[in-house]
Amino acid sequence: MQIIFTVPQSHVVVITRFGKYAKTKKQGLRSRIPLFEKIHRVKDWGNTANKEGIFIELTEQNMNTKPKQCHSKDNVPVTIDASIYWRIIDVKKALFEVDNLPTAIVDTCLNALRSEIGKLTLDQILSSRQELSEKVASSLIETSGKWGVQISRVEIQELETSDETAEAMRLEMAAERKKRAEILQAEGFAAAKIKTAEAEAYAIKIRADAEAEYLKKLSGTLSRDLVGNILMMEKVLESYKTISANPANKVFLPSNIRTLISDQILGSTTSSEV
Hints:
Largest sheet: 5 strands, antiparallel
Number of domains: 4
Shape: rod-shaped
Distance between the termini: 144 Å
CATH superfamily of the largest domain: Band 7 domain
Radius of gyration: 46 Å
């Protein structure tokens, strides 16, 4: 084993003395005391956060979990996996406080995911993926700190349900869209009815005001009886007009209707003069 060695940038080397942690060598040209000091070799990390088994990386690492099936609060099976972003901040703890750091991080993350998913319904899980990721990352802070690791974020990559659940969700969404459309249509119809009623009420008011003004002017120049006869004859004529508006209706008018009208008005005039 080399006595003098070079530590790459953003890496460290851990030196042990008689099998115990002694010191951490940072980047640059370094050395060790032969026979007494050894470079600690990482055996179980694979290529994660180390090079050649002796150079521990301090840069941010990314690991993907394997898909894991969990159950939501409403007992719906959900298959989920995530990406974990982390970095070593205490090399001594990372090597000696946990048996296999990468495996421990992944297992702890999956357990946290399962725990958080069990607190939410399927709808909540699907609509709050970012919030779920943040909760998982927060729940790992204390444990990862004991291992000398800082977890910056956890990103949920895949979130799948069974085919039966997916079909049920599709049908539910279609029913919900139809329901919303029917509600909007009903609201529009009701609004139109209200507008029509308001317009009719306004038209009636206008006609009533006009008739009141008309009566006021007639009363100023004609007798009370004559005004009454004139209004009565107007109503009769309006009735004939309404009936005759439909071509299918047959309307029979008296042959002497003009005479009747004249007699009605003239009679009122004569009686007022007497």
